[in-house]
């Protein structure tokens, strides 16, 4: 790392493996696996022109994809990728692409192969398979190589795939028919490590400790000696880590704004103040805007309308408060901190089909257009688990680092139907009890997200010989790795009993408690 390079983006500072995405649902996993052994990797769409690459990779991986290389209009890699003179690994579609380029020996297989297979290593000397024995791999393909591509040899085979792995006889070009990036390929990570570390000679220096150092320098250089930055904080891990990083880089020239929309959890505002302001020393402005939000939500029951009103009111309040913050030198605020993470970037650049025009810019919503601010996104290269380790290094308390996600519209979408102050109070109190018990039973970190929703129906109950007619609380707790699919968490009966009894006894206005046992899909995590 030279002094000049240290102020550059990650792909110029760290040895980078480039993943060219052909649209596989597993492409992002390739990057995650590489980073697990501290090799930095980034993804770009397969349509990327090599002459326009923003960095020079130390190796290239061609991902899988849903197309067939022999189809008309199928996506193909820019042939200049081979002029980079770096090792290339093709995975599934990526390997078929290598075969197509070198002799067109790809066709439809007799049957689709999906699921586990056992790989038999034929060429023990191949560096890619160093330390890999005959173990289970994961297949997902219809097409197959009909012949060995020109200049290649067979490295491994399975019962159904005679060319489960191939390698060029002279150049460092390799192909795998199976998916080393999924955990069902038991030794897949060793293969990826062999490729990245032994073959590409990538430096294993991608650690959050190294990232902090280079990122702080980069922010300082980008913002310059006087400009100032604002950003919204929510009390969640991403915005807190972003804010603390800015504080480390430019001190009080970063202004954090926390908007209390009246739809936050119990004690939230007090906790945020304590942690960010007193604890982390972040220059924080707290705005109490609950009345404004609740006033606008009066009479509104449609979930989409509620979300829109909450989102727009947020922008409104944020802009108003931001306008009052004046940099010391009398100029205007120049930058807006945005907590974009790498999955958002992947989503916006991943290859979605030959006819689709690639959107390269992440949509950041209404804020920027109105405010004429330049965007600063210090977390844009990071996955969530990386943000968490970064947070730990930055001294952010564990409680906050491991916090469940909380939606922007907050309790506003957990009170079904009209959102009134009294309804918010019921949902908030019930939620507090639920989470308190989850923590007391040591279950918080096993659950990905948990909350209470208040249903707009009344139900009959009996309390002390008196008939009651009150509302229903629905508890939801889910387990998931990516929030794309989720399953409900299996609590002990005694736990649910205790929570139900506490909520009915301690929260006025609740006659009944239910537990949501629907997975996602078909249900969503939130109720609205
Ligand atoms: N579409 C190709 C096939 O069916 C590649 C599949 C993949 O990359 N997973 O073989």
Task: Report on this structure.
The chain has 528 residues and is of the alpha/beta class. 32% of the residues lie in helices and 22% in strands. The protein has 15 helices and 19 strands. Strands 2-1-3-4-10-9-8-6 form an eight-stranded mixed sheet. It has a five-stranded parallel sheet with strand order 13-12-11-14-15, with helices on both faces. Strands 16, 17, 18 and 19 form a four-stranded mixed sheet that branches. A hairpin with a 4-residue loop joins strand 9 and strand 10. It is globular. Glutamine (GLN) binds next to strand 7. Its main location: cytoplasm.
Identify the notable features of this structure and list them briefly.
binds glutamine; 528 residues; five-stranded parallel sheet; globular; alpha/beta
Topology:
Layout lengths: L9 H4 L2 E6 L5 H10 L3 E6 L13 E4 L25 E4 L1 H9 L4 E13 L1 E2 L14 E10 L6 E6 L7 E4 L4 E4 L11 H12 L8 H16 L5 E4 L4 H14 L3 E7 L7 H12 L4 E5 L1 H8 L5 H22 L10 E3 L4 H8 L16 H6 L2 E3 L7 H10 L4 H4 L19 H20 L8 E15 L2 E14 L7 E2 L4 H14 L3 E6 L13
Parallel strand pairs: 1-2, 1-3, 3-4, 4-10, 11-12, 11-14, 12-13, 14-15, 17-19
Antiparallel strand pairs: 5-7, 6-8, 8-9, 9-10, 16-17, 17-18
The chain binds glutamine (GLN).
């Amino acid at each position: 790392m030279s002094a000049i390079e240290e102020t550059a983006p990650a792909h110029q500072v760290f040895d980078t493996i480039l993943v060219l995405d052909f649209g596989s649902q597993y492409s992002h996993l390739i990057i995650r696996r590489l980073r697990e052994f501290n090799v930095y990797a980034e993804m770009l769409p397969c349509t990327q022109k090599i002459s326009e690459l923003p960095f020079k990779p130390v190796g290239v991986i061609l991902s899988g994809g849903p197309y067939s290389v022999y189809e008309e209009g199928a996506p193909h890699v820019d042939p200049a990728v081979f002029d980079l003179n770096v090792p290339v690994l093709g995975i599934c579609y990526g390997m078929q692409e290598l075969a197509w380029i070198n002799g067109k020996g790809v066709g439809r297989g007799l049957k689709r192969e999906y699921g586990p297979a056992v790989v038999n290593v034929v060429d023990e000397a191949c560096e890619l398979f160093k330390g890999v024995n005959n173990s289970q791999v994961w297949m997902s393909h219809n097409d197959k190589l009909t012949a060995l591509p020109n200049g290649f040899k067979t490295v491994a085979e399975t019962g159904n795939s005679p060319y489960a792995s191939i390698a060029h006889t002279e150049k460092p070009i390799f192909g795998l028919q199976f998916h080393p990036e999924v955990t069902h390929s038991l030794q897949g990570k060793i293969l990826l490590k062999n490729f990245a570390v032994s073959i590409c000679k990538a430096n294993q220096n991608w650690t959050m400790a190294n990232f902090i150092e280079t990122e702080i320098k980069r922010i300082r250089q980008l913002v310059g000696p006087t400009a100032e930055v604002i950003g919204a904080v929510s009390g969640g891990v991403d915005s807190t880590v972003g804010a603390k990083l800015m504080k480390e880089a430019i001190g009080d020239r970063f202004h954090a704004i926390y908007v209390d929309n009246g739809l936050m959890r119990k004690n939230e505002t007090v906790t945020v103040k304590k942690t960010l302001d007193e604890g982390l020393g972040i220059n924080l402005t707290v705005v109490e805007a609950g009345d404004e939000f609740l006033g606008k939500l009066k009479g509104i029951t449609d979930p989409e309308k509620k979300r829109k009103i909450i989102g727009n009111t947020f922008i409104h309040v944020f802009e108003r408060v931001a306008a009052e913050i004046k940099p010391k030198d009398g100029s205007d605020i120049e930058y807006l901190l945005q907590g974009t993470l790498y999955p958002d970037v992947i989503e916006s650049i991943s290859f979605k089909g030959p006819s689709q025009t690639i959107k390269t810019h992440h949509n950041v919503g209404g804020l920027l257009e109105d405010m004429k601010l330049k965007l600063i996104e210090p977390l844009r290269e990071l996955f969530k688990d990386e943000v968490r380790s970064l947070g730990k290094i930055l001294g952010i308390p564990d409680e906050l680092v491991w916090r469940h996600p909380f939606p922007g519209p907050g309790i506003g979408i957990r009170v079904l139907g009209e959102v009134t102050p009294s309804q918010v109070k019921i949902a908030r109190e019930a939620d507090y009890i639920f989470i308190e018990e989850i923590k007391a039973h040591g279950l918080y970190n096993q659950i990905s997200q948990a909350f209470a929703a208040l249903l707009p129906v009344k139900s009959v109950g009996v309390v002390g010989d008196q008939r009651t007619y009150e509302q229903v609380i629905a508890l939801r707790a889910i387990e998931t790795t990516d929030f794309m699919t989720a399953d409900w968490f299996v609590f002990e009966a005694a736990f649910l009993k205790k929570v139900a009894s506490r909520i009915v006894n301690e929260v006025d206005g609740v006659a009944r408690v239910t537990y949501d046992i629907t997975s996602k899909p078909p249900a969503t995590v939130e109720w609205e």
